[in-house]
Input
Amino acid sequence: MSGASGDGGAVPPIILASSSPRRRRLLEMLGLDFRSVPSEIEEVLQDGEDTSGHVERLAREKALAVAASYPDALVIGGDTIVVVDRTPMGKPESEADAVAMLLRLQGAMHRVETGVAVIAPGGQMKSSVVRVRVWFRAFDQRTAVQYVSTGEPMDKAGAYGIQGYGATLVDRIDGDYFAVMGLPLARLVSLLRAVGWHYTFRGIEAL
Output
């Protein structure tokens, strides 16, 4: 990443408020020089909170928690949830839970909602939610058990990763593939612009 903005001002350090290897991989793909600093926000759906509000709130809270320690940085937060039949699915608590989640998703459509938030130095924050419809092919319990045995589903909302073995379970999607991975890149670039920074394909610079 360039060390200075187009108008001569210093480019702030970029911090991803997450330990997610998928989100790290996506920022690396964009060519951004960044640090990963996970927040310690509790990911609990609040009473009366809808799923879209939930992921946007958590993305904002994660970014805010990290920005409090790094006020001169540009901080990116994100959160993802899977919703089927209006029921939210977070990360599985056990292998049996993961198998049950997958069997509920098989042969049907579910929704993935990803919240993303960006905080610029000085505290300006913008956030958004991206929703994607995902259809799984039909499969049996044996397939679900074999997939869970890979270990891939255990740290992922809905118990699958579209970028890994889980890709073989997906029939089709309607929306942003990267949002299903956990970080909608086009929306991220728009939010960066909204807080005063332009993505240059090699880094960022001030507008």
Notes: Residues 1-8 have pLDDT under 50 and may be disordered. DSSP finds six helices and nine strands in the chain. Residues 31 and 202 are 5 Å apart (CA to CA).
